[in-house]
């Protein structure tokens, strides 16, 4: 029997007080594609970063092709034939593709011969794997998909026998993802070993041979893909039975709260992010926006939340909003009755170094209720209110003095939600409400959102989790490339149809 | 202004530009590798002192030069330790180094030479003498070019020639060699360098060390070539002008040459023509003194071509929080 | 879960760092052939041994409180204002103009006027770097450094060509009129029956500095603006999400910072020299950086650190008088304090964190 | 116990302050006494230093440099039992316990101006001043008059180093100024610039032309390259004040000129060879005439301008 291409034995890694990996052991056979799944923060990226020498494990052993191979640094990993495409690319933005490729594996002290050799080799690889990129283009001018190709080429140029890809499809269109999978299959056919980290069970089922599940820093199980199914994988991931549908009464939509017409956003780099969005949300209704990350959902939330400027017309309760950013910002939006749960709670929704009580007035600090007098804030009142809110939202521990960074992800999200929902807004913008949140908290959060809807409020929900969209929304709009591809009712559609729309396939063509 | 005066101003410009150029290139290496260096001034000052002190004691300018470089590298190492190894704030470290040099030079000089914080005057072999290039005498008579060659090109000190030679050398090193590729990469995207199997720490220390050497040359030039000995605060803000020139030059070697020559020219002009009378009103000498800084602010404001620093500049490279 | 208890962070680490800085300074003193213990005794006696010593120590402290607060306020908004020196110099110009060219009936009114002038000029000098940072993204560190030099040149010009009285040789303004002279601690304390050295320059501005500490504390931790300023300092994207305008925060923060630095001039220009001299700030703007770092940007810490540096300055002046240790020794100590508490902070923090982590897991 | 306060530039400026230092040292070695001393590092410290010495009971307290005059006037009334001396300064009203000492620098400068003109082959001489203040113009004016007296067609290039006290201690700039003057044909350069002069003398020596030192005897700095030094006997003034001690006469302004040997030019083994007999004879002749009142060297102070030199 052949030795496994990779064998990890008792790997542990702590970042200060956070135990990211706990005693992990795993074997991957050569010539296979091995999937790894797990919730956010489960420790997947950490484990792979250890394998490719980016982090150093606190304990444990690594065997490559059966021989003990210590990997103290990236150099050792490269020597061992391991290449990794990171979740966040490791490219020098203002270098050319060629320069990025040769970085670290130059031939001799002068660049010219190295570049010439790499150019030839790149041509060769491009032909062989259909990985075409302009060798002289600067990385910053390339699309994300092409940048990923450069990362793969980098690994292949270094003669990697083991290729690790960390959430490679998160940034890709379905078509690009399909092409990536074709390349992976070809590499597997050549006998290379591939580790694929993804959140998408569909991809796992589609391409992997075996799959490992991680939870809370530990490896819970490894199974043959053909012996399992998505439902079972999901259960292994979160550690208990997953509730797929939310209990909710049919919606009782009222008048239009939000009317958006021909909304356009161009970002700082001059790229059109929203290309004429039109939609509406009524009182007592949840409109879910589905789509692959990076298709403009974030910009939609930001322009509605007053963070970025745009053009077009947006009516809130029939009154026009200023989109130019000149007389409006997040604060004036709040005053108009728009609350906003941002997609990235750690960078936007919360100040991680602030205590919980300081965070519960974030964005609302000018509310007269929080002022002791004309000059000073009434911190006592704020603390008292925070304690009450934490109670109601079951934030644990219910300590208003604790800094936000010291709460777990789920509890951080509850603090944000408590702040925004309890404002009783006419419209709630909510992005990725349950990202990285455990199942118990998910149920709680979903319940609160439905309650808000039932109280006659309008909710615009953005989520990359199709399941969440399907179970929460009363109507679903699908975004692709800055446009709305179509609208569906949850009862009359399924993941397959939505998936096609998300891939930019119009109904006529479908 | 006649040709001879022009040549004289040019000559003065060259002399005054050399320390700026050397320090500017020092900053260029460091900042290209992602380590901001506002401690150029301190390193120069320290080198000026040690080079003068050792040259005075030993009687040999070369020993002085080596000592100057060594002391500047010591401070550079401290900067590296603080900002690379211990991921401290690079700006604060630079500020500390400037103060350290400003204080230590005088304290040591006073204890050593008891001349109020200066070194004895350097004589003969303890100084860099001007080098007369071949044919300087012979060509003197050739119109226009002759005097130019004899007075401007010939007759500078060894360190001046080294300074100017550093410009093409730096360009070649940065853009044509493996070392340069890695050095630039480490200032733009250290994680890319790290995952490519190259030590970020080592690259950054190398860059900081080169900056130390160049600041050492700059300081030694001040004390042993331009002048004959050390006096307190003799760098007189040149490190900051060099920093300004670096921004002005957008972190590029050839631009650095032009920027430092420009700032050197400003100094030379301010020296030569205290208050400049331009018809209706006089430009006060203080305005000329402030001009490099004003120009830098204008450049920084992005009104005249934006200066974009290396992307990872100023940030310690942290893998694990 | 944070890695270290709070007391370790705000007391233990600065204290050890300070000890390290002092230990190295002692080594330097030893190396130049002097006795560090004797030097220390001399410094303590010289700065705290008499009301004269106290008078100077408190005078310097007052300067450093203002410049330290200036740096600290900006730190809270994640802005590094190295321009305190230039702003304080401009503040001096403001004070001089107010005292020289306005007829004041009483020193108390003159004090109010001078405070306004000092703060306004200091703030104005900070406004340009602030605007460039907010609107053009020019790094405030570099622009404030440049503005220090520009301020020096400007003051040089003003003193030499405009303010210098006719026939005077020294580039300094005329003496301020008698009525603008501020009461010194001697004047304030003797009616209370406390005798205080008549010749020390500590004056009523000291109480202004104490008030400023309290004011800054209120501003940062009790007002809405302070809340927004801290939020911006911790996370710019979050501030924007909350509708906090970065431009507004940067501008107002730098104006406050520059104003505080400028206020120092009330102490040294109006209270001490009673005229504007060249280089009146004597580097106090830079010492503000060390003071803010030492004081962990908290007004109370700033006050303590300012007192420490006041002691170093007065003690250092005494050293220069009675020993062969030159006054520059203070600059060395100051550099080491900045180095250890500011730049090499992690050198101590990393191992200490590990110790506390180990202690905690054992405790479990 | 007397005390000496040296102004910016420091006691080792090889020039003005060093002269004061030499005077104090002479007193110390002759009497075996000790004296307190401090060098100013910044404009703002002057008053503190004065008070500190007065507090400790130092007497007399001798200060060098015009910039110390105002602080002295400020502090002196607070310590009526202490005597203060200021050299080079001017006070409209002199407090009873203050003695002001000034020198007739234009007379000494006149003599070295003559020597310079006689030595110059090119008919061009230079002057590098420190800080641009009336005092230094006073030096330059006397120098120019002396030079013109020898050679009416001579051209005199005069530059000042700066406008602030930093100009007393900037040898780099001094050197550059000297080089510029040399390029314009100057072959004798007179430096009246405190520590900055070190750079001027260095540049002159490097270019193999002659320079003239100031205040102290600077002939030894570059033997054979320094034509002479304009002596300003600050050392004598300091020495005498210290000798007088408690008995020091105060409340007046003392003016020391050629007649009192307060100013002069230096001749020693380092420059003997440079001075011909007729040069010395001419200078000595002029000196006698000035002392006798037959020759009037116009003072810049007379009406704030110089008859033979524009600034
Ligand atoms: N560099 C780091 N420093 C400190 N803690 C870290 C670091 N990287 C990761 N962590 C922590 O380690 C844990 C595991 O993180 P990791 O990135 O491996 O998760 P993941 O499974 O890849 O999650 P995701 O699906 O979000 O990518 C998390 O709690 C995270 O906060
Ligand atoms: N990067 C980090 N730095 C410091 N502490 C962290 C970090 N990431 C997580 N923690 C801490 O580790 C603990 C566990 O956090 P984690 O996010 O893994 O919780 P969790 O079990 O996933 O809970 P939840 O499901 O609510 O997210 C928390 O107390 C959190 O404060
Ligand atoms: Mg990950
Ligand atoms: Mg979590």
UniProtKB/TrEMBL annotation, chain A:
A Pfam family per the record: ABC_tran
An annotated Gene Ontology molecular function: ATP binding
Gene3D superfamilies attached to this UniProt entry: P-loop containing nucleotide triphosphate hydrolases
Record's subcellular location: Cell membrane
Residue ranges of domain ABC transporter in the record: 6-241, 258-506
CDD domains: ABC_Carb_Monos_I, ABC_Carb_Monos_II
Bilayer topology annotation: Peripheral membrane protein
Domain of life: Bacteria
GO cellular component, one term: plasma membrane
Xref: InterPro entries: AAA+_ATPase (IPR003593), ABC_carbohydrate_import_ATPase (IPR050107), ABC_transporter-like_ATP-bd (IPR003439), ABC_transporter-like_CS (IPR017871), P-loop_NTPase (IPR027417)
Annotated keywords: ATP-binding, Cell membrane, Membrane, Nucleotide-binding, Repeat, Sugar transport, Translocase, Transport
Predominant subcellular localization, coarse grouping: membrane
Family designation: Belongs to the ABC transporter superfamily.
Protein known as: Ribose import ATP-binding protein
Species annotation: Actibacterium atlanticum
UniProtKB/TrEMBL annotation, chain B:
Membrane topology category: Multi-pass membrane protein
Keywords noted in UniProt: Cell membrane, Membrane, Transmembrane, Transmembrane helix
One CC-aspect GO term: plasma membrane
Subcellular location field: Cell membrane
Protein name: Sugar ABC transporter permease
Keyword Coiled coil: no
Source organism of the structure: Actibacterium atlanticum
GO molecular function: transmembrane transporter activity
Domain of life: Bacteria
Keyword Transmembrane in annotation: yes
UniProtKB/TrEMBL annotation, chain C:
Entry's Gene Ontology molecular function annotations: transmembrane transporter activity
Main location class: membrane
Pfam families listed in its UniProt record: BPD_transp_2
Record keyword Cell membrane present: yes
Keywords linked to the UniProt accession: Cell membrane, Membrane, Transmembrane, Transmembrane helix
Recorded topology in the membrane: Multi-pass membrane protein
Protein name: Integral inner-membrane protein
Native species: Actibacterium atlanticum
Presence of keyword Nucleotidyltransferase: no
Cell compartment(s), UniProt: Cell membrane
One Gene Ontology CC term in the entry: plasma membrane
Transmembrane segments: 12-33, 53-75, 87-104, 110-128, 140-160, 200-220, 249-270, 276-295, 302-323, 329-348
């Amino acid at each position: 029997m052949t030795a496994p291409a990779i064998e990890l034995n008792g790997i542990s890694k702590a970042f200060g007080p956070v135990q990211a990996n706990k005693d992990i052991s795993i074997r991957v056979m050569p010539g296979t594609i091995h999937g790894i799944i797990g919730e956010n923060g489960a420790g997947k990226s950490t484990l792979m970063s250890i394998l490719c020498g980016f982090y150093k494990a606190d304990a444990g052993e690594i065997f490559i092709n059966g021989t003990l191979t210590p990997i103290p640094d990236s150099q050792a990993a490269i020597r061992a034939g391991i290449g990794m495409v990171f979740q966040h690319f490791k490219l020098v933005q203002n270098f050319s593709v060629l320069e990025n490729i040769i970085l670290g594996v130059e031939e001799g002290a002068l660049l010219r011969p190295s570049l010439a050799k790499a150019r030839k080799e790149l041509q060769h690889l491009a032909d062989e794997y259909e990985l075409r990129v302009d060798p002289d283009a600067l990385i910053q001018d390339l699309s994300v998909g092409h940048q990923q190709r450069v990362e793969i080429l980098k690994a292949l140029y270094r003669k990697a026998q083991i290729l690790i890809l960390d959430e490679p499809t998160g940034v890709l269109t379905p078509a690009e993802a399909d092409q990536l999978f074709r390349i992976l299959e070809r590499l597997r056919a050549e006998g290379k070993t591939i580790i694929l980290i993804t959140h998408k069970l569909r991809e796992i089922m589609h391409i992997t041979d075996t799959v490992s599940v991680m939870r809370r820093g530990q490896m819970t199980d490894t199974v043959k893909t053909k012996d399992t199914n998505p439902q079972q994988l999901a259960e292994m991931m979160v550690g208990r039975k997953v509730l797929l549908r939310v209990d909710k009464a049919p919606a009782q939509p009222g008048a239009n709260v939000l009317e958006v017409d021909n909304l356009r956003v161009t970002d700082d780099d001059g790229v059109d992010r929203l290309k004429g969005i039109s939609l509406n949300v009524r009182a007592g209704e949840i409109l879910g926006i589905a789509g692959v990350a990076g298709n403009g959902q974030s910009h939609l939330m930001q322009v509605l939340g007053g963070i970025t400027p745009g053009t077009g017309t947006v009516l809130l309760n029939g009154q026009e909003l200023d989109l130019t950013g000149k007389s409006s910002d997040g604060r004036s939006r709040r005053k108009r009755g728009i609350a906003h749960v941002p997609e990235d709670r750690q960078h936007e929704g919360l100040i991680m170094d602030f205590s919980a009580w300081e965070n519960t007035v974030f964005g609302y600090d000018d509310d007269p209720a929080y002022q002791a007098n004309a000059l000073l804030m009434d911190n006592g009142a704020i603390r008292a209110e925070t304690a009450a809110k934490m109670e109601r939202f079951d934030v644990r521990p219910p300590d208003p003095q604790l800094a936000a960074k010291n709460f777990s992800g789920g509890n951080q999200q509850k603090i944000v939600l408590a702040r925004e929902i309890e404002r009783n807004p006419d419209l709630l913008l909510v992005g990725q409400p349950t990202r990285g949140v455990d199942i118990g908290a998910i149920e709680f959060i979903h319940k609160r959102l439905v309650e808000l809807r039932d109280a006659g409020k309008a909710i615009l929900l953005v989520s990359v989790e199709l399941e969440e969209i399907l179970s929460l929304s009363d109507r679903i709009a699908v975004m692709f490339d800055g446009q709305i591809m179509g609208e569906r009712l949850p009862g009359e559609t399924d993941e397959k149809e939505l998936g096609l729309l998300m891939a930019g396939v119009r109904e006529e063509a479908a | 202004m006649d040709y001879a005066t022009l040549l004289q101003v040019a000559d003065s410009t060259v002399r005054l530009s050399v320390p700026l150029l050397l320090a500017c290139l020092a900053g260029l290496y460091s900042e290209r590798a992602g380590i901001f260096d506002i401690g150029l001034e301190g390193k120069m000052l320290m080198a000026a002192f040690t080079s003068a002190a050792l040259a005075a004691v030993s009687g040999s300018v070369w020993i002085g030069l080596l000592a100057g470089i060594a002391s500047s590298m010591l401070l550079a190492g401290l900067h590296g330790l603080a900002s690379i190894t211990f991921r401290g704030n690079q700006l604060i470290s630079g500020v500390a180094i400037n103060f350290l040099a400003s204080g230590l030079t005088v304290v040591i000089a006073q204890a050593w030479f008891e001349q109020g914080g200066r070194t004895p005057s350097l004589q003969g072999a303890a100084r860099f003498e001007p080098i007369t290039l071949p044919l300087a005498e012979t060509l003197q008579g050739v119109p226009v070019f002759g005097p130019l060659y004899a007075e401007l090109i010939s007759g500078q000190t060894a360190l001046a020639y080294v300074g100017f030679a550093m410009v093409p050398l730096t360009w070649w090193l940065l853009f044509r060699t493996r070392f340069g590729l890695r050095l630039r990469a480490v200032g733009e995207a250290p994680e890319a360098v790290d995952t490519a199997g190259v030590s970020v720490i080592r690259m950054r220390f190398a860059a900081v060390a080169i900056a130390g050497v160049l600041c050492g040359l700059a300081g030694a030039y001040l004390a042993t070539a331009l002048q004959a000995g050390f006096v307190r605060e003799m760098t007189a803000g040149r490190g900051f002008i060099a920093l300004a020139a670096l921004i002005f030059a957008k972190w590029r070697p050839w631009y650095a040459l032009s920027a430092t020559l420009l700032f050197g020219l400003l100094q030379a002009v301010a020296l030569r023509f205290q208050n400049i009378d331009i018809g209706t009103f006089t430009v006060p000498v203080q305005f000329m003194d402030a001009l490099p800084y004003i120009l830098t602010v204008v450049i920084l404001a992005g009104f005249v071509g934006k200066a974009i620093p290396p992307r990872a500049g100023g940030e310690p490279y942290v893998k694990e929080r | 879960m944070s890695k270290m208890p709070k007391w370790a962070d705000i007391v233990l680490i600065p204290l050890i760092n300070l000890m390290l800085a002092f230990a190295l300074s002692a080594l330097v003193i030893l190396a130049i052939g002097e006795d560090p213990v004797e030097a220390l005794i001399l410094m303590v006696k010289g700065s705290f041994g008499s009301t004269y010593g106290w008078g100077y120590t408190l005078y310097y402290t007052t300067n450093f409180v203002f410049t330290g607060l200036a740096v600290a306020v900006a730190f809270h908004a994640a802005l590094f204002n190295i321009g305190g020196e230039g702003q304080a110099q401009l503040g001096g110009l403001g004070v001089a103009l107010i005292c020289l060219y306005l007829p004041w009936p009483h020193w108390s009114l003159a004090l109010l006027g001078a405070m306004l002038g000092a703060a306004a000029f200091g703030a104005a000098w900070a406004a340009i770097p602030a605007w460039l940072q907010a609107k053009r993204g020019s790094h405030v560190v570099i622009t404030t450094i440049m503005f220090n030099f520009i301020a020096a040149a400007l003051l040089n010009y003003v003193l030499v060509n405009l303010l210098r009285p006719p026939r005077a040789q020294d580039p300094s303004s005329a003496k301020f009129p008698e009525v603008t002279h501020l009461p010194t601690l001697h004047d304030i304390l003797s009616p209370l029956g406390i005798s205080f050295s008549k010749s020390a320059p500590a004056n009523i501005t000291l109480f202004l500095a104490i008030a400023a500490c309290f004011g800054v504390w209120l501003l940062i931790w009790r007002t809405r603006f302070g809340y927004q300023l801290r939020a911006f300092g911790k996370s710019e994207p979050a501030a924007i999400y909350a509708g906090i305008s970065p431009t507004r925060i940067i501008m107002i923060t730098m104006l406050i910072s520059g104003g505080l630095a400028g206020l120092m001039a009330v102490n040294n220009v109006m209270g001490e020299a009673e005229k504007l001299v060249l280089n009146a700030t004597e580097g106090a703007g830079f010492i503000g950086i060390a003071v803010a770092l030492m004081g962990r940007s908290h007004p109370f810490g700033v006050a303590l650190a300012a007192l420490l540096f006041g002691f170093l300055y007065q003690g250092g002046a005494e050293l220069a008088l009675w020993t062969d240790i030159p006054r520059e020794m203070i600059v060395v100590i100051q550099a080491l304090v900045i180095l250890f508490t500011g730049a090499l902070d992690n050198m101590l923090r990393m191992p200490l964190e590990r110790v506390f982590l180990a202690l905690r897991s054992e405790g479990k | 116990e007397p005390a000496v306060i040296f102004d910016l530039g420091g006691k080792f400026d090889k020039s003005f302050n060093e002269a004061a230092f030499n005077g104090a040292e002479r007193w110390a070695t002759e009497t075996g006494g000790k004296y307190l001393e401090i060098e100013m590092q910044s404009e703002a410290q002057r008053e503190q230093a004065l008070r500190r010495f007065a507090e400790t009971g130092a007497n007399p307290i001798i200060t060098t440099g015009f910039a110390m005059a105002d602080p002295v006037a400020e502090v002196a009334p607070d310590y009526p039992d202490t005597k203060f001396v200021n050299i080079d300064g001017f006070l409209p009203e002199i407090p009873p316990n203050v003695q002001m000492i000034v020198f007739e620098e234009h007379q000494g400068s006149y003599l070295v101006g003559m020597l310079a003109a006689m030595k110059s082959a090119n008919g061009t001489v230079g002057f590098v001043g420190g800080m641009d203040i009336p005092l230094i113009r006073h030096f330059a004016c006397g120098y120019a008059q002396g030079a013109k007296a020898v050679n009416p067609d001579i051209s005199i290039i005069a530059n000042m180093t700066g406008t602030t006290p930093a100009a007393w201690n900037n040898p780099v700039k001094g050197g550059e100024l000297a080089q510029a003057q040399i390029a314009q044909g100057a072959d004798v350069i007179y430096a009246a610039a405190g520590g900055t002069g070190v750079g001027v003398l260095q540049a002159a020596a490097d270019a193999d032309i002659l320079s003239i030192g100031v205040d102290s005897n600077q002939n030894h700095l570059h033997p054979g390259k320094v034509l002479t030094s304009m002596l300003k006997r600050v050392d004598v003034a300091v020495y005498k004040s210290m000798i007088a001690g408690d008995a020091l006469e105060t409340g007046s302004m003392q003016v020391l000129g050629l007649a009192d040997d307060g100013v002069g030019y230096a001749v020693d083994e380092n420059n003997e060879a440079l001075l011909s007999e007729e040069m010395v004879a001419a200078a000595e002749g002029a000196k006698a005439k000035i002392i006798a009142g037959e020759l009037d060297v116009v003072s810049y102070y007379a009406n704030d301008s110089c008859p033979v030199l524009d600034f």
